[in-house]
Amino acid sequence: MNQIHYAIIGGGINGLAVARQILLDKPHARVTVFEKEAAVAMHQSSHNSGVVHAGLYYEPGSLKARLCRRGVELVRDYCLTNQLPYDQCGKVVVALAHEEEGRLENIYQRSIANEVPGVRMLEAQEIQSVEPNCIGVSALHSPETAIVSYQIIAQTMANEIISRGGDVLLQQSVYALTQTPNGIEVKLENNQIHPTRFDYAVSCCGLQSDRLAQQSGDEKTPRIIPFFGQYYVIDATARNEVKGLIYPVPDPQFPFLGVHFTKRIDGEMTIGPNAFIAFGREDYAGGHVNLKDMWDYLSYPGFWKFALKNGAATIRESKTVLSPDYFLKEAAKYVPKLRHVAIKPATRGIRAQAMNANGHLEDDFVIRQQGNITHIRNAPSPGATSSMAIGEYIVREIMNH
């Protein structure tokens, strides 16, 4: 029997989860992971909040809702089995004004429909039993929301893949995938063709996913639009003033959540992120302009339709970009005690958000099959939480179909 050979493009947490799942389900298969960097998990997998999302917000029945709930179980079990840090610190979503309570109730109903365990509504006087320094008119408490290091999880998965006989090829940047009569051809950025012909390929390229998909013959849309999110770390003397995660009630008029408190697995307490258009898809340090990346969205009609609809959000987010004090002021609405705490910049994240030509952000995961090639075209938050469930879904459902 011929051995089946799989190519996985992208050594982030989703690509590694797919590769690992193939080796779990098909231990005699050959699996090769291509990663353009000198190490795995160098992009979104190591530039995120580290939250294991419980599944509060997502449309019941959607891929996000289904794979997030399954993903929580798999991430928790993986951390336990491999003795990796996992802190079930809990989360409150806080309404500051009565006009937010209807939206909060909708989130509660979604969380019930998604079978999120332990969720309950809190009245104003009950909030401080969970978060002693937090204020609000009501809140939703999710006690099983947790935090991890997705970078550590990804590195552990990479080691497991190698131990199971897979290959993780570093500094191998892939330009295109081509289906031929003899198998799938992997074209590298240096214009060389990898000598192996693969039976199946899965593209898990995050911020570059639309480019690789289009260069491989898939549709032009949705287009990835990069939004950076800045985090700040609060002074160590005040980190214990917040016990877990404190989030705002999402405003449907704005496309992103807004500033909130997030505990990190290393014990630090952060505020953030904001959300603003990035000048480069991989500009994690800030200040580097990538003209190609900017041209990609400035020449995209969908971006301008989005911008025209979201002028108020742009103004709001630009204030947090230009003024750290305004950033802190927004967070301190939930914990007034921290209004004047010292803060310092932390690592920025960049969200690979897929946008349609009509200017709408893709709300669900987009995973598309093109012959024997599968493209993950949209997997923002809760993509890391869902990573192992995404691996199961692709290997057991998409590929089998």
Report on this structure.
There is one protein chain. This protein has 401 residues and is an alpha/beta fold. The protein folds into 2 domains: 5-46 and 151-222 and 363-398, FAD/NAD(P)-binding domain; 87-146 and 224-355, D-Amino Acid Oxidase, subunit A, domain 2 (D-Amino Acid Oxidase, Chain A, domain 2, 2-Layer Sandwich), CATH 3.30.9. Helices cover 31% and strands 24% of the residues. The strands form 6 sheets. Strands 8-2-1-11-21-20 form a 6-stranded mixed sheet, with helices on both faces. It has a 4-stranded mixed sheet with strand order 5-6-4-14. Strands 15-16-13-18 form a 4-stranded antiparallel sheet, with helices on one face. Strand 15 (260-263) and strand 16 (269-272) form a beta hairpin. It is globular, with a radius of gyration of 21 Å.
Rg over alpha carbons: 21 Å
Low-confidence runs: none
Q: DSSP helix count?
A: 11
**How many structural domains can be distinguished in the coordinates?**
2
Distance between the termini: 21 Å
Within the largest sheet, what's the order of strands? 8-2-1-11-21-20
* Counted beta strands: 21
Q: What is the highest CATH level, the class of the largest domain?
A: Alpha Beta
CATH architecture of the largest domain: 2-Layer Sandwich
CATH topology of the largest domain: D-Amino Acid Oxidase, Chain A, domain 2
Q: Mean pLDDT, nearest integer? A: 95
What structural class should be given to the helix and strand makeup?
Answer: alpha/beta
Assembly level:
single chain
